[in-house]
């Protein structure tokens, strides 16, 4: 590099640093969103509106990790999310655990190259241990082994489990668990089926 180019590089860096310190966090977020929107392309079902954050996502981005969210903010977000949970009209929370196991195992759906007319999976095993038979599981979430055995199957537990899968943020704001019902990833019947996987005494989770 010649001296002239080095000076030019330093001048450019100073300019970037100067701009960065002059922008507020909100302005940086707005600019980043503009850059992403202009450089990402819509493909199949993956539309650019996926970059738009709802109230919960915006608050969670602001604080970074769940433990950094102030208590009053977390409470407000959780209450709002819980209110938006749509419970099954027939009042039943539990479906078929075998279908639930297939859903828990599958990571298909919602990507640009997935067929949007086919049901999505939930990839529960990517984050949770669920049954003794499945040795390949992630540990981002707590183990759910013996979930039903440990908690029983009262109306309260069934309702909580349905709502937790429907919208994890209704109970822990900024949780890393996807909001399966809220975001239309799983249907009502599919949520019932994974609830059955967790609660049915015959399910491998409780054997
Ligand atoms: C991307 C990771 C991820 C995926 C995928 C995921 N979870 Fe979770 N889950 C978590 C984390 C992290 C927690 C703990 C924080 C919280 O409570 O939200 C959790 C908590 C839970 C809890 C609460 C446990 C308790 O003690 O009350 C249940 C129930 C649960 N998950 C079920 C499921 C089921 C069923 C699926 C699939 C339909 C699933 N999770 C998919 C990350 C995940």
The ligands bound in this entry are: heme C
Give a short account of the largest sheet. Answer: none
Along the chain, the helix and strand elements come as: HHHHHHHH
Q: What count of helical segments does DSSP give? A: 8
Question: What is the subunit arrangement here?
Answer: single chain
> How many domain regions?
1
CATH topology: Cytochrome Bc1 Complex, Chain D, domain 2
CATH architecture: Orthogonal Bundle
Termini Cα gap: 68 Å
Q: In words, what does this structure look like?
A:
It is a single chain. The chain has 207 residues and is mainly alpha-helical. It has one domain (50-207): Cytochrome Bc1 Complex, Chain D, domain 2. It contains eight helices and no strands. It has helices spanning 3-22, 25-39, 55-63, 71-83, 97-105, 147-151, 155-166, 188-199. α5 (97-105) crosses α8 and α7 (155-166) crosses α8. The longest helix has 20 residues, at 3-22.
Feature tags:
single chain, 207 residues, mainly alpha, Cytochrome Bc1 Complex, Chain D, domain 2, 8 helices
What can be said about this structure in brief?
The chain has 207 residues and is mostly helical. It has helices spanning 3-22, 25-39, 55-63, 71-83, 97-105, 147-151, 155-166, 188-199. Heme C is lined by residues 104, 122-124, 126-128, 140-142, 144, 161, 164-165, 168, 172, 175-178, 180, 194, 198.
């Amino acid at each position: 590099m010649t001296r002239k180019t080095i000076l030019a590089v330093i001048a450019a860096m100073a300019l970037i640093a100067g701009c960065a310190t002059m922008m507020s966090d909100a302005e940086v977020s707005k600019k980043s969103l503009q850059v992403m929107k202009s450089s990402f392309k819509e493909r199949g079902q993956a539309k650019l509106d996926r970059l738009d954050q709802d109230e919960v996502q915006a608050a969670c981005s602001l604080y970074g990790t769940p433990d950094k969210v102030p208590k009053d903010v977390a409470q407000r977000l959780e209450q709002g999310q819980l209110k938006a949970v749509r419970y099954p009209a027939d009042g039943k929370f539990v479906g078929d655990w075998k279908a639930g196991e297939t859903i828990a195992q599958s990571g298909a759906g919602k990507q640009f190259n997935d067929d949007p007319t086919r049901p999505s999976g939930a990839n529960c095993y990517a984050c949770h241990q669920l049954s003794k038979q499945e040795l390949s599981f992630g540990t981002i979430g707590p183990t759910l082994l013996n979930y039903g055995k440990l908690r029983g199957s009262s109306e309260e537990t069934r309702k909580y489990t349905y709502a937790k899968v429907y919208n994890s943020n209704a109970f822990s704001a900024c949780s890393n668990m996807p909001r399966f019902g809220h975001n239309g990833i799983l249907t009502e019947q599919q949520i019932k089926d994974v609830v059955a996987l967790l609660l049915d005494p015959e399910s491998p989770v409780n054997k």
